[in-house]
UniProtKB/TrEMBL annotation:
This is Secretion protein HylD. GO terms for cellular component: cell envelope. It comes from the Bacteria. It holds the Pfam family HH_MFP_RND. Gene3D superfamilies: 2.40.30.170, 2.40.50.100, Helix hairpin bin. Residues 48-266 form the Multidrug resistance protein MdtA-like barrel-sandwich hybrid domain. Residues 129-197 form the Multidrug resistance protein MdtA-like alpha-helical hairpin domain. It comes from Dissulfurispira thermophila.
Length: 367
């Protein structure tokens, strides 16, 4: 009886183990079910290739990095020597300096002419005013002398005054005439000087035009200098972004032309994962859909991504897929641009992607 009971207990225990195993298996399958609104796919981290080329012609002085090296944005990669650019920049700088001196001289001439003209006009105007005052005074004195002379002439004819008194009146009259004539001449001379001084304003305008012309020439020279300097700066080649050098098809000392590839690099700021989505699911996706990327090298990290390209042409599943049944299915390529602020994701890393095509769907982590 005791053995029978033990056997029954063992059968019951075994049944319970089987039931528990089946339940656990079913639970696992349920947990593996992908929620509606998500698509899970796999691929590899890839980077967009960038060809770095010069914009000028010259001889390679130095190539500072080699294949396989990692570079930072703004890092100096190569230097080019161009005697022609050096000469053009030196000539442009010398010409600009010369024209700057001409501007300074023209400005000085204008300032001197303006000051001299202003002083001359002021002096001429003062002389005219003084001459007019002198003429008015002479005319006033002459008027009195004339009246006295005419009166004294009558009196002298009537022998009511002496000859000496008459002669004095006559002398004052004649002197008055001479003074008025001299004052009139002085006024005419002063007015002529004022006219000449006022005419010098035209010289000021000429000097202003000369200054404007010199300034225009100087600005043009500065533009040529900036252009020459911009070309000269192109003798130094800098990395446009963080990246890894894939190839360097040139060597030091070679003469290169604009567009000649110096380096080919992977842009580490523009990494993406290319995955393949089955044809029935491709209609659910659109550009900008959110995604999350997981890589084996950093199992605890999640990298945000977005769909930036959906291929128009369908293709068969790549041969890398193991089973023939899966390989014959039509799929569409989808590129997911990955945010990589720390620069830890590298091209070539295997990656799993979870794409969310329905807003509000709870994220899951692929197993």
């Amino acid at each position: 009886m005791r053995k029978t009971n033990i056997r029954k207990l063992m059968i019951i225990f075994g049944a319970l183990v089987v039931i528990a195993s089946v339940a656990w298996f079913i639970r696992g399958k349920l947990l593996e079910k992908i929620p509606e609104g998500l698509i899970i796919a796999s691929g590899r981290i890839e980077g967009r290739e960038v060809t770095i080329s010069p914009k000028i012609q010259g001889r390679l002085k130095s190539l500072l990095v080699d294949e396989g090296e990692t570079v930072k944005k703004g890092q100096l990669l190569a230097e080019i020597v161009s005697d022609q650019l050096d000469a053009r920049y030196a000539n442009a700088r010398e010409n600009a300096a010369l024209l700057k001196a001409q501007v300074e001289q023209a400005a000085s001439d204008l300032s001197f002419t303006e000051q001299n003209t202003s002083a001359s006009i002021s002096a001429a105007e003062a002389a005219v005013n003084a001459a007019r005052a002198q003429l008015q005074k002479a005319q006033s004195v002459f008027g009195k002398a004339k009246n006295d002379y005419e009166r004294y002439s009558s009196l002298f004819q009537e022998q009511l005054i002496s000859a000496s008194a008459y002669d004095l009146a006559k002398m004052q009259y004649e002197t008055g005439i001479a003074d008025v004539s001299a004052a009139e001449k002085e006024l005419k001379r002063a007015e002529a000087n004022l006219k000449s001084a006022l005419a010098s304003k035209e010289l000021v305008e000429v000097k202003k035009k000369q200054l404007k012309s010199a300034e225009a020439n100087y600005r043009a020279a500065l533009a040529r200098l900036e252009e020459a300097y911009a070309d000269l700066k192109e003798t130094k080649i800098y990395s446009p972004s963080n990246g890894t050098i894939l190839s360097r098809p040139v060597e030091n000392g070679e003469v290169v032309n604009p567009g000649t590839p110096l380096y080919v690099m992977v842009d580490m700021d523009r990494l993406y994962v290319k995955v393949y989505v089955p044809e029935p699911d491709i209609g659910k996706l659109k550009l900008g859909n959110e995604a999350r990327i997981y890589v084996d090298a950093f199992p605890e990290k999640t990298f945000n991504a977005r769909i930036t390209k959906i291929y128009e042409q369908a293709e068969f599943t790549p041969k890398a897929v193991e089973t023939r049944e899966e390989r014959v299915k039509l799929v569409f390529g989808v590129e997911l641009s990955v945010e990589n602020p720390e620069g830890i994701v590298k091209p070539g890393m295997p990656a799993d992607a979870v794409i969310r095509w329905k807003e509000g769907t709870q994220w899951i982590r692929p197993k």
